[in-house]
Amino acid sequence: MVKSYRYIQHRIRDNTLSQSAKNIEDHYDLGNDMFRMFLDPSMTYSCALFPEPLQPVEQVDFAVLEEAQFRKMDALIDMLDLKQTDKVLEIGCGWGACAIRAVKRSKCEWTGLTISHEQLDWAKRKVAEAGLEENICLKYQDYRLARGQYDKLISIEMIEAVGQKFLSQYFHVLSDRLIPGGTAVLQGIVCPDAYYDRYCKSSDFIKKYIFPGGHMPSIGAIKSSLPSDLKIGEIKHIGRHYAATLDHWYR
């Protein structure tokens, strides 16, 4: 009964246009000062990429963590193969670090979307400090309301906020926003296919208290949600690096 109640509670918080904003507010609008206590100076809230072989984390070193986050951003930016003439859409721009780093490297035109007021205020300030306001436009906007077409698209650990019910819609939005032959690069936390059905039919501590409305898709679920014009070019597994990232955040 308790599990059923938690599952119903979770489904009530499905990521509709109105509910998504409430779900994000409950987590990301807790205050930038809270996130500054454990994130690196770039305020990057996603898996970093550390040098191999991975080393045990004995004490927190924010410089090491920031370097690992920049290494991750550079890897994703390299996959985008950015050119100065590119128009790029970032779905879930966070505190703006990836946008700033990518535009410094490529001088492209970048549009970032978020539905967190706290993130948007911080990111806009950082963009202004970097002198990149002509290249970077950040908006408070749900990805489903985005318009126009872009050469490239990137979304870093935002797919977990989409929800099972809206997964197909998410990828159709990506398809609509990309020009024919465009490139999308996604980073996300996924659930093993073998456990996915059970995961979808239950709730847990993270869904209830940490990420209301959260949902980890499986690779199989992603593949079955793709419209015919979107093809997966490459999949990389960096789960071990997330363990190291979490270890840094914890300490």
Automatic annotation (TrEMBL):
<keyword id="KW-0489">Methyltransferase</keyword>
<dbReference type="InterPro" id="IPR029063">
    <property type="entry name" value="SAM-dependent_MTases_sf"/>
</dbReference>
<keyword id="KW-0443">Lipid metabolism</keyword>
<dbReference type="InterPro" id="IPR050723">
    <property type="entry name" value="CFA/CMAS"/>
</dbReference>
<comment type="similarity">
    <text>Belongs to the CFA/CMAS family.</text>
</comment>
<dbReference type="GO" id="GO:0008610">
    <property type="term" value="P:lipid biosynthetic process"/>
</dbReference>
<dbReference type="GO" id="GO:0032259">
    <property type="term" value="P:methylation"/>
</dbReference>
<keyword id="KW-0949">S-adenosyl-L-methionine</keyword>
<dbReference type="InterPro" id="IPR003333">
    <property type="entry name" value="CMAS"/>
</dbReference>
<dbReference type="GO" id="GO:0008168">
    <property type="term" value="F:methyltransferase activity"/>
</dbReference>
<dbReference type="Pfam" id="PF02353">
    <property type="entry name" value="CMAS"/>
</dbReference>
<protein>
    <submittedName>
        <fullName>Cyclopropane-fatty-acyl-phospholipid synthase</fullName>
    </submittedName>
</protein>
<keyword id="KW-0808">Transferase</keyword>
